[in-house]
Design goal:
This protein has 206 residues and is mainly α. It is built from ten helices and no strands. Helix 3 packs parallel to helix 7, helix 3 runs antiparallel to helix 9 and helix 5 packs antiparallel against helix 10. The longest helix is centred in the C-terminal third of the chain and has 33 residues. It starts with a helix and ends with a helix. This is LysE family translocator. It holds the Pfam family LysE.
Length: 206
C-alpha cells in the first residue's frame, strides 16, 4: 500500500470513529457515570470485539449473514436483549439502597471484568460493526498477493485507532463529569440505563 493510500485509510477511519454511534455513546456514558478507569476498561472490551469482527469478516462470515437475513436479525435481537438486560441491572443498582460513598468506591476486579465484558458484548452483538469491517477493509487491499497479511495489518490499525478514539472519549467524558459534579442532578444515575435502552432501540430499528 502506498503512503497516500494508507493516509486515506487513516482519514477514513478517523471519520468513521468521529461519527456518533453505539460504541461512542457507551464510552461517553460510562466515562460520565463511572469514571475514566471504568470507561477505559469498557473501551478495551470494545477493541477486543472489533478484533473479532475483523477476523470474522476476513473469514467471510459477514457475507454469509448478508445472504441469510434471518441470521442477521437474530443477532440484532440478541444484541438488543443484552442491552436491555444491562439497562435493567443498572436501573436496579441505581434504585438500590447503596450510599453515595459506596457508589463512588473504586471499581473492584469484578467490576472491571464486568465492564470489559459489557464493552465486548455490546460491540460483538452489533451486526453493523461486522458489516462495516467486511465492506470497509477490502477497499484498501491492494492487488492479489499477501491478501491475508494486508487484511491483518489493516485490521490491526482499525482496532488500535478505534481504541485510541474511545480512550479520548472516555477521558473527555470523565473530565466533563468532574466539572459538573458541583451541580448534582437526581437523575444522573439514570443516564447509563437510558443510554442502553436507546442503543437497544437503535439496534432493532436501524
Amino acid at each position: 500500500m502506498s503512503d497516500s493510500t494508507f493516509l486515506m485509510y487513516l482519514l477514513a477511519l478517523a471519520g468513521a470513529f468521529l461519527l456518533p454511534g453505539p460504541d461512542m455513546a457507551l464510552v461517553l456514558a460510562t466515562g460520565a457515570a463511572r469514571g475514566v478507569a471504568t470507561a477505559l476498561v469498557t473501551a478495551v472490551g470494545i477493541a477486543g470485539a472489533r478484533a473479532v469482527h475483523v477476523a470474522l469478516s476476513g473469514a467471510g462470515l459477514a457475507a454469509l449473514m448478508v445472504t441469510h437475513p434471518q441470521a442477521l436479525q437474530w443477532v440484532k435481537w440478541a444484541g438488543a436483549a443484552y442491552l436491555l438486560y444491562l439497562a435493567l441491572r443498572l436501573l436496579q443498582s441505581a434504585l438500590s439502597s447503596k450510599t453515595a460513598q459506596e457508589a463512588a468506591a473504586p471499581a473492584t476486579a469484578h467490576g472491571a471484568r464486568a465492564s470489559l465484558v459489557r464493552g465486548f458484548l455490546t460491540n460483538l452483538l452489533n451486526p453493523k460493526a461486522l458489516l462495516f469491517c467486511s465492506m470497509f477493509l477490502p477497499q484498501f487491499v491492494v492487488g492479489s498477493e499477501q491478501v491475508g497479511m494486508q487484511y491483518l495489518r489493516l485490521g490491526a490499525v482499525l482496532v488500535l485507532m478505534g481504541l485510541l478514539f474511545d480512550a479520548l472519549y472516555a477521558v473527555l467524558a470523565a473530565r466533563l463529569a468532574r466539572r459538573l459534579r458541583g451541580k448534582p442532578s437526581p437523575y444522573g444515575k439514570f443516564v447509563l440505563p437510558t443510554v442502553f435502552v436507546l442503543l437497544a432501540g437503535r439496534l432493532v430499528l436501524g
